Amino acid sequence: MSRTVQLATLARLPARRAMASSARGLATEVHRETAAPEPPMMRKQRAEGDIGSVFASLSGEAEQPHPARFADLKRHIAGDEANRARLVSSFRTLTSRLAAAASEIERLGTDAVPTVSYESLLARDPATVAAIKRSGTAVVQGVVPRTEAETWLQQVEAYVAANPQVRGFPADDKQVFEIYWSKPQLAARAHPRSLAAQRALLSLFSLPQSAEVSLTTISYADRLRIRHPGDSKFALGPHMDGGSVERWEDPAYRAVYARILEGRWENYDAYELEARAKANQNLYDGAGACGVFRAFQGWTSLSDTGPGEGTLRVYPLLREMTAYTLLRPLFREKAPRAAVSREHYLAPENWELDIDSTAFPQAPLGRSQEFNDASHPHLELDRTMVSIPRVRPGDQAWWHADVIHAVESIHRGAGPSAVMYIPAVPLTHLNAQYLRDQRACFEARCPPPDFPGGEGESSFTGTGTPSDIQGTDGRRAMGFEAFPVTSDMRRGEQAVRRAANDVLGL
Ligand SMILES: [Fe+2]
């Protein structure tokens, strides 16, 4: 690891933390800090906290009106008369499609989410691929051997027991832990079958020759949860990761959804990767912001958990939900819900283009995009948010970056509902910068850049270190080994690998 990054890490730490570091033999670096050049790019550490600060609804914040410029943004997006007419017509076809989809999803329930085998995913079985792409979500069975995953849960529990000062949500009954660097997490992130599943998921995306994105996977250090039976506090409502208003406000992010915003949602392809790789998902330095582009968010199950046992819920039709999310702020109701029947309220005739107001429903600045029945009525979330099928230890749940997801409000099961959050993250220029900063945090045993800051695990016992990461692929995914560049690779692939190696000092 380069000195610049090491120094930069220490520069980000509070004084107490730096003293603790010097006590571990890094006094020289601290001393030289004043003479060091400004680090190339180092994020400031976030405030201490837990997952409760990420969601406006969990932190009890009321929805605030957006600044006036958001009305201009709507007019800009709505475009000329022809585009506006297409938007109106496409909103009509979309809402009637959503009504049919709600009945279809309600009938299927949990089966609306495909369960596929690790082998069929790796073989890119056409039916498997089609099912995952359509729904945007999947349970992949048997990624990690069951006994290994069960051992990881025991190790996590022992780590928590050895470090009772660990932060977590909710504070009085910790279940979502501010733990990133435990040895079982390092093992899970570097597991060869897990890395292979991630690469297979990334391969569902298409890229032009020149796109400077690699479908190799890199590790994103995230939390873990061990939800207790009976819990009703970790009730994350329906939301989308990857920012909120950024989807409209950032021109690069908006470009991902160009087809939808041109009034042609049926032609929207959620699996084109080039534009997404350039999107800025974090314009407001939000507590919920993600510093990398995660093509799929996912977790690895450490427990046997079925529907009703505190598991994940999703809206299981990717294209439709994305189109509605993007179009929703451009429309408003005519008659309010209380004044008319449900049918009348949802009917296309009751909705008109809204390019005057600043309303972006449930998309607060610096927070996650959230959804509820009032803000996004045509999704009929009370009928369409389905629990994913039963998972066993070593199975993984995956959901596309734009999937609306939630956690069951009550855990009615008898055992822990335990997962490690491990997404599928391609190598991009922005992601390489994050990887460099994340590596620095790992070496300092502080929380990764995206997460609430503080001392993290620096004073914990039994924390993992870089030498605990097994295998070249696992080490490379964490930024400790260079990405090889060969002549048979796409031009863009070669370019981004070289750039990443530079950023990482490898
Ligand atoms: Fe989420």
Automatic annotation (TrEMBL):
Composition bias type Low complexity, residue spans? 457-467
Instruction: Map out region (Disordered) in residue numbers.
Output: 21-44, 449-474
Q: Sorted alphabetically, which Pfam families does this protein's record hold?
A: Gig2-like (PF07350)
Gene3D superfamilies tied to this protein: B-lactam Antibiotic, Isopenicillin N Synthase, Chain (2.60.120.330)
Q: What is this protein called?
A: DUF1479-domain-containing protein
Record organism: Cutaneotrichosporon spelunceum
